């Protein structure tokens, strides 16, 4: 379900995504050995893997925390399973960082404040809020990394797409949230507000990261070596927001 | 380290353990197909696997929770790894329950109150208390299940011993706690009190379980079909307490 609504498949945004990746036939046709000769590209990938690695570790913690709110033992086990899957993604990213000669902890550090800030500002107050958060958070992260994947060398791209593999969370969350709204339609209004707050907080933290990390931001907007195009970053955020709106509508929530 | 101090290896207790298992050459020489013909044995094994499965799920949650207290990203990743290992043990136990025709959730339910009670009464207030708790809790659980393993059919025994495989927590905790005591010896006094409280709470919750679950208790004390010998349960608890005391001394904590 998530895949069908990501920006690169959505009809209205497909052109933009294709245009952007077409500019980078250079790097995306190379493997890591070739592409990493450029120190700025190398720094951007270390940033990207560091952000993704800490994101997975934070997702592990968030899901394990949500498991405590689970109404049944079966739900608890389901969330623990997803948490464990996120941890194994973390391991792959950490091992990759080490393999390319980067210190994993150092690579993650720059992203701790933004991700922890996001989670602190959006602590779910119940099980359904936790599920919506996990679904929205996973989907946004997935959209973002798929946008980025097109600009990566073949080795890094394969890893990024592998760890974005659906952990089964999306369909689990969608099913539970739909059932709750069917049972009590007022729940939908509350969760719609919650999803809007999550998106706002995610955008605000992402912009903070983009502003702080030059090499990463430059890569995100197409590798212009002498700075980055803020308008292009804005367009990427628009595409992600649009995909979010469609997903929320499909879930029965007005975004 | 843990293995060398378990009761069945300690010189003073080896005779008792050997005597007890000698009485049960019958069941322990059988496989599950043979042993499970006895409905009381079957019920006891479902109880045992249910208790162990929920214990692993609760350990997953506890370790994930402790990961939040970790002073460094590397420590956090280490705890997340252990949590994930506990989750995989949970999966094996749940799958085994399903394979022998038991509903995993129903098998776990009777042990939720005691395990949740234990964790609620002993929420660590900092990183070191969390480590000591994980170490003490793992060790006691491991001693207990090793005592029980001798009375099990060969198939169930193999599974129980497999999931008790050290997740690396013991040596990690021992190393960190020793370093903290070396740096500030006063920490040792505080943690010794904490370890004593943990042991007291563990014993009190275990006795609650033993009193509630007839089939399980009967198996624990040697399969006497018409009730169980409270004195023998007491001796088992003594052996476990004794092993705990030795471990605490080795850790630099007076128990």
UniProtKB/TrEMBL annotation, chains A, B:
Ferritin-like domain boundaries: 39-223
Ranges for region Disordered: 1-24
Domain of life, per lineage:
Bacteria
Q: Which Pfam families match?
A: MiaE_2
CDD domains given in the database record = Ferritin_like
Give the protein's recorded name: tRNA 2-methylthio-N6-isopentenyl adenosine(37) hydroxylase MiaE-like protein
Could you tell me which species this protein originates from? Streptomyces montanus
Lineage, uppermost ranks: Bacteria, Bacillati, Actinomycetota, Actinomycetes, Kitasatosporales
């Amino acid at each position: 379900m998530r895949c069908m609504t990501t920006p690169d498949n959505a009809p209205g945004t497909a052109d933009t995504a294709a245009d952007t990746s077409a500019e980078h036939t250079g790097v995306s046709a190379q493997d890591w050995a070739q592409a990493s000769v450029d120190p700025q590209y190398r720094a951007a990938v270390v940033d990207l893997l560091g952000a993704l690695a800490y994101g997975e570790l934070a997702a592990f913690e968030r899901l394990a925390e949500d498991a405590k709110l689970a109404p049944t033992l079966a739900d608890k086990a389901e969330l623990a399973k997803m948490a464990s899957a996120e941890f194994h993604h973390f391991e792959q990213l950490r091992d990759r960082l080490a393999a390319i000669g980067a210190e994993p902890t150092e690579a993650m550090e720059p992203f701790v404040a933004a991700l922890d800030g996001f989670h602190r500002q959006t602590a779910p107050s119940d099980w359904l809020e936790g599920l919506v958060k996990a679904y929205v958070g996973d989907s946004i992260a997935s959209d973002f990394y798929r946008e980025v994947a097109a600009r990566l060398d073949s080795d890094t791209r394969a890893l990024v797409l592998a760890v974005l593999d659906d952990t089964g969370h999306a369909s689990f969350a969608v099913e539970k949230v739909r059932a709750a709204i069917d049972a009590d339609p007022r729940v939908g209004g509350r969760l719609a507000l919650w999803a809007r707050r999550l998106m706002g907080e995610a955008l605000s933290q992402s912009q903070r990261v983009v502003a702080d990390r030059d090499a990463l931001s430059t890569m995100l907007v197409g590798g212009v070596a002498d700075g980055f195009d803020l308008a292009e970053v804005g367009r990427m955020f628009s595409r992600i927001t649009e995909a979010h709106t469609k997903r929320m509508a499909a879930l029965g929530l007005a975004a």
